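Spend some time on the protein that follows and explain the fold to me:
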Amino acid sequence: MLSAVLKTGFQLGPLLFGLLFIPPVTAQVVTALDWTPPLGLAPLTAGFVLGGIWGLYAQWRGSWLTWQP
């Protein structure tokens, strides 16, 4: 049972990282720069949008950064 949970967690690693790490960091950067996110979003919400999109891309591609098309 535990191994199945860990296996699923590692398979969804990029998406989880995108949704659990990127939003608070983005919110702090936006707040520190005194920048207003578009569409009147809260800084944390903008971070979740950015992190979710980037996490899904990394999950689909298999890598956060790709050097090949």
About this structure: The two ends are 38 Å apart (CA to CA). The chain has four helices and no strands. The mean pLDDT is 86. Residues 2-61 form one domain.
